[in-house]
Amino acid sequence: MATETGLTDRTDEDRNVLERWSRLAILDSDRVYRGLFAVIVGFFLLIALFPFYWLLLLALTPERLFSDLGLVPIAFNVASFIEAFQVVPFHWYMLNSIVMALMTTVIVIVIGSVAGYVFGRLDFRGKTALLLAVLIISYFPPTAFLIPVFNLLTGNVEVLGISSPRLYNGPGAIVLPLSALVMPLAIYILATFFSQIPDGLEDASRIEGSTRLGALYRVIMPLAAPGVATIAILTFIITYNEFFFSFLMTNGEPENWSPIVWGITRYQGTRAIQYNLMAAASIVGVIPMALIVVLAQEKIVSGLTAGALKE
Amino acid sequence: MSLERTDRTGLQRPYGTAVDWLEDLSETQFAYLMLVPVFLLMGVMAFWPLVRTFEMSLFADAATAPAPIGEFVGLENYVDIVRGERTASLPRPFWDGDRPLASAIPVTFVFTAGVVVVETLLGLTMALVLNENFEGRRWLRMTLILPWAVPIVIQGMIFFLLFNNSVGIAGIWLSEIGVFTRNPLSTPENALLVVMVADVWKQTPFIALLVLAGLQSIDRDLYEVARVSGATRWERFKTVTFPLVLPTLLVAMLFRSIGAMKIYGTIVPIAGCNTVPSLSCVVVSTFNSRLYGTSTAVAVLMAVIIGSLMMFYIIPYARTDAGGV
Predict the structure, then answer these.
(1) Who among B37, B153, B306 is closest to A261 (CB)?
(2) Rounded Cα distance, B163 and B168, in Å
(3) What does the pLDDT look like over B67-108, one tens digit per residue?
(4) Which of A278, B163, B274, B285 meets the CB 3.0–4.6 Å disulfide criterion with B171?
(5) What is the pTM of this model?
(6) Which of A254, A310, A183, A17 is closest to B46 using CA atoms?
(7) ipTM here
(8) What's the total number of domains in chain B?
(9) Alpha-carbon distance A175 to A121, whole Å?
């Protein structure tokens, strides 16, 4: 900026040809740059949004018009949003998904924030080893847990002659493994949050005669609330979006707590494949996530970033 | 802060005793006590299953017998799988030189390498765009994050609807110009490409967000110095932005590589595991046929491959920047 104002102080006659030419190029390159920038933004927006546009277009097109399908809408058939629920009880699948995501979130918050406090604020022997043991879990593929977890939750594992409870086809079969697998991320982020709270506050309340748990719940937890909210949102998104255990730990019946994974794939199994209903159900299934992104964008960004990078 | 409510007097008797007992514990004892719930949950749902998976991989399959697993065979499962002698019990071969993109190892590696490279390039560009100051930046970021938040099954369904041969506009168009076959989602090579495109669509924002955080932590003064010394935009990127954002970029690539090696859910609604047989697909289909020995051995091999991949990123990084880790 400094060089530019220096140049404009002089009149055109004072400059030689080279100077004038380079000044134009600089200004022009800025314009080129801005044009390029707009093109790239447009490209990203198109890529991000076109699939959603296609879903909406398909959902609004009745089956008999599929042969005329193009890039512009040719019909406005809102009825497929109702029919989708009649062909497959998608509302039950969604309710199952939402309830199980909430259950996972509660478990992760309650257990994870205690663990995050311990790893973030206490000094004890074996801390590093235990934290590493927790974190290493997130690197294993879900396939590495599958068969033992499946056998355990179908009641095929015996401990001291007592067989494990049959949780398969129930909420526990999805909520428990997912809670355990989200836990490393939750503990890592929460430990970071807890460790950033100044020691002085906790010390002061302890000197005032507060108990350990009193200090934790009255001083530390309120200060860590933003971190806990971040974890709650991330856990909800991860669980609602999960495929592997959601698919393999239930048999696909809505009354057996099958989540949207089964609801969506069931449209592919119906007698005549109804593409407009698949699209309508997909749109409905995305709505909770879209709402979360709109309402809690900052939390998602800070959570993902804190989970992957060291502060 | 109302500390007067928190003193120890005035508590009810049994609660008071428990509190006193807690107060008398050493910090280490207290820490371990507080960690009981998390290790109970993770012990049963994560640590034990890992150990048990490894143990089961050392036993033979027992598909017909009532017992879930056969006799102890040591490393035979692994040896057979790697040498291609288990192909009969796998839905698709582990490794097939004649038709590589219809076998598990090449499919998984091509998928991982392809999506990580494309997502890194696009993610870096997206982050640079989001790092500029302009009106509506918040809205742009929100829109670009949206694909990341789409459930995997719906992500798969979207790309099924875009690329199938009856209503999929993209698939039909690519067939007409001869890039894809008449039925792309049943052709392994085409279907793999569609799954990769679906993954790039969903995961690019993840890399972009991490890199954006890296970009925002760069000291603004460095740009001022570069500008004063006459560096062009490209030179500023090359000498300031890129070297400083590289560690973050590598971490993002590492996370995506690990995630890509696990690919399963996206494949099922788009093309099915028979057309695009990733390693996770092999584990699930052998599990469904109750071939527990083979299935767990492939799962352990996956873990080993992912572990080696991590080393590939971590070792050079630790060497160049030992202080930072």
Answers:
(1) B153
(2) 4
(3) 777 889 999 999 999 888 888 778 788 888 788 888 999 999
(4) B163
(5) 0.89
(6) A183
(7) 0.90
(8) 1
(9) 28
Any B CB within 8 A of A117 CB: yes
Chain A residues with CB inside 8 Å of B48's CB?
Answer: 148
The mean pLDDT of A3-29, rounded to a whole number, is: 61
A251 touches chain B (CB under 8 A): no
The minimum CA-CA distance between A157 and chain B, rounded to whole Å, is 11
CATH of the domain at B246: 1.10.3720.10
Decide if B154 is inside a domain: yes
SS3 A249: coil
Cβ atoms B208, B123 nearer than 8 A: yes
**Predicted confidence band of residue A289 (pLDDT cuts 50, 70, 90):** very high
* Amino acid (1-letter code) at residue B127: A
Residue at B305 is within a domain: no
Q: Provide the number of CB pairs (under 8 Å) joining chain A to chain B.
A: 289
| pLDDT for residue A162 | 80
Burial of A10 (0-12, 13-18, 19+ CB in 10 A): exposed
Rounded CA-CA distance B116/B309 in Å is 13
| Residues of chain B scoring pLDDT < 70 | 1-15, 63-66, 317-325
The answer to whether A286 contacts chain B (CB < 8 Å) is: yes
Give the C-alpha separation, B246 to B31, whole Å: 37
Residue A245 in contact with residue B262, Cβ under 8 Å?
Answer: no
Tens of pLDDT, residues A59-92: 999 988 888 888 888 889 999 999 999 999 999 9
Helix, strand, or coil (residue A199): helix
CA distance A11 to chain B (A): 23
Which chain A residue lies closest to B152 (C-alpha atoms)?
Answer: A241
Contact B35 A130 (CB under 8 A): yes
Domain-located, residue B252: yes
pLDDT above 50: residue A4: no
B306 touches chain A (CB under 8 A): yes
By residue range, what is the domain housing residue B133?
99-291
Domain-located, residue B29: no
- Tokens representing residue B189 in the block: 């090579």
The CATH number for A81-308, chosen from 1.10.3720.10, 3.90.1150.10, 1.10.10.10, 3.40.50.720, is: 1.10.3720.10
